[in-house]
Write a structure and sequence with these properties.
alpha/beta, Glucose Permease (Domain IIA), Histidine-containing Protein, Chain: A, Glucose Oxidase, domain 1, 30 helices, binds phosphoenolpyruvate, binds magnesium ion, pyruvate
Amino acid sequence: MPSISLSAPLSGWLCPLEEVPDPVFAGGMLGEGVAIDPLGEVLHAPAAGEVIGFHEAGHAVTLRLPEGVELLLHFGLDTVRLGGAGFTPLVRIGEHVGQGQPLLRVALDEVVGKARSLVTPLLVTEPAGYVIEWIAPFGTVEAGDPMALLVRDGAVTADRSIGPAAALEEQLCREVRVPLAHGLHARPCARLAEVVRGYGAEVRVAAGGREASLASPTAMLRLAVRHGDTVTLLATGEDAAVVLGELARMIESGMGEGAPFPVEGPVKASVGEPVAPVSVADIPVPLPGAALRGVAASPGIAVGPVWRPVQAEPAIDEIGGGPEMETARLRNALVAVRIALGRPGAAQGEEEAILGAHLALLDDPELTGAAQALIAGGVSAGMAWRRVLHAEAGALRATGDTRFAERAADFIDLDLRVQWQLLGTEPPAMVAPAGAILVADDLLPSQVAALEPGGVVGLATARGGPTSHVAIIAASRGLPALVALGGGVLGIADGTTVVLDVEAGTLEIDPVAERVTEARAAAASREARRAAALAAAGRQGATADGTRIEVFANLGSLGDVAPALAQGAEGCGLLRTEFLFLDRADAPDEDEQAACYGGIARALEGRPLIVRLLDIGGDKPAPYLPIAAEENPALGLRGIRIGLARPEVLSTQLRAILRAASSGDIRIMVPMIARVEELRAVRQVLIAEAERLGVAVPQLGVMVETPAAAVMADLLAAECDFLSIGTNDLTQYTLAMDRGNPAVADGLDGLDPAVLRLVAQTCAGGSRVGKWVGVCGGLASDPLAVPLLVGLGVGELSAAPGQVAEIKATLAAVTDAGCAALARAALEAASAAEVRALALEMLREVGL
Ligand code: PEP
Ligand code: MG
């Protein structure tokens, strides 16, 4: 059989696939290949074939060669988000093209600023028994240059066939007892399948009188192998002994989900074996009367029925546009979902492992083969996928084993992902019932931000952290919230009455009537205190002795101004400009930014407006300011580091602020400063832009969010106008605890004495050179922290808008001497709990 030659589809720089900054491509999950960093604007066909897929966003083309080989050309990374802007397809699905024929024209100028990367993988997604020899040297390449040879791999295909030839080969077998706590469920099956794919051998597993190929996670799942079961691994072909040994070792080791059985241990029946919970989803459903412990994210107490938003159902047509079209639609949808699931940051920890299993299921030939068979019979892509995945889910439920039945949800989840992708849309927004407590695995800032006022009265999440942006938004809305409650919270049935008591850190499930009454009374008295504070919101922020403490509000948009002023905000101590930049396809330009800042300044009617420069990166990604995958995003390109690395972003924002400055008392604040030279660099750009526009240089302040900035506070303060402590990040970096990681959320407390000592050091640094020091992180919104911060020397508090009146009421109740004494004691305390106890005692003494 003749070999097939592939030519370069683009001019540019040819590099190995492993260099693509995206694990889905780099890890070869979609197939073998290379990548080109393009210089040319036209993507050409690497070989003659039929166009069997062309994504509607125009960035990805799939070709099938007459020999059955399939190629995927994917222009850039995350370019699907551009929605077709900058891409002009030159061919259609179903068209036959010749080698070198132009397939796609790309406006590089337009796409370059918006895409995460332009690097373009060329992948052999279906080798059809051919072996690929990449012949072009890495480096400069011209479109049309010979790039690869595909030669028929007779030996390998013969070895891999399951026909009579294989039957004649020697079959090796090995018995293995399964120590995994939850048996061979989706994730271990996926990992085993991955190992098998790396060898030439055909491996099957036999259990309970049935057999399945180890190459198919779905088939393995159907065997419902449980903890303690003994299975037989059967292997034939090349490397049979080696692969058998490796698989047996993996299973016997427990694959991280169970201790290996002692070698001499008797073989026991699996039923009733104790199992150790290994994931959030495996925590048992809590019983009525029980209480789950969580981490305080936003203060308060609330009572109400649980509301778990239900995912909307996508509409699925029974009949599609014919087998050819539906095959292409399904293929494209699977590729898109695969890319979305594998995107860096798509998930972390347990969820990442679950997504890994979903990725393997997407690759499972049993699933795609079965869907393909239905499509060939005239069924639409969506209906075929739905039937196959629901049948698998049903089979798992029918095993009667709750552990496997729970895995059915993975198939349902995967079905929905692909259905929405086929429809090219997102699931519709959900409307919350009034008075309910929203329970979710985790929430996105945009989801909390989208909640209508008067709907939910509290939030409870399985995961999440107390200083996340979700917590910040909840606090700004006065919504009590507990996070990191664990997976058990997801087992509470909809409509169950719960008490969310943030101070106690508990979510009580279906408590007795007396407790419900008591909690309702506590919520009501808290409301009464809030109402009294609100009635006095117009007073100046000051202690009982009259020491002036400015009480500002943190804002994210123009819409936040009115509620903040209603609470008595005396200005804005932190405008989080990134909210203007997030959740949108492209960056706001200078005019849009100037209009936004000017509008907020005018709405504040002359009160100070401190505009923080863009703080993205870390836990706040923006799609159009792509940042290469980072091992430690919190320690990487974020905050002002991005502004300094992308000068046009910084100067555009500074110009917009300067243009808006005439609308009010606008000041500028720089996030994530760690070194004095960063401040100097920003000041230089600010002065240059102000000179260009012929306007005065506004006040420039530094956010103290890193321990480095706190210990250098005197030197920083000498070169700026004010310091404002971002206690959220300062806590994260001081304690080395990720603010978004529930595993450490328990210890992430801004009242930790280590953080307070840095606050004290910052205040001392500021006062040494006569500069004021404020706090704009979460501590400023915590009434317990307020007297302490005042005692440490803080002169301005910028709180969540919903907390402003209460903060003023707290200030009015405490004396300067009381605050100073509390601060002295707190600096000597050994733990955050001790500090909290001291602060609580003081507030109780003054009747709060
Ligand atoms: C902080 O870190 O405390 C802060 C106010 O900034 P953000 O929460 O937006 O990171
Ligand atoms: Mg911060």
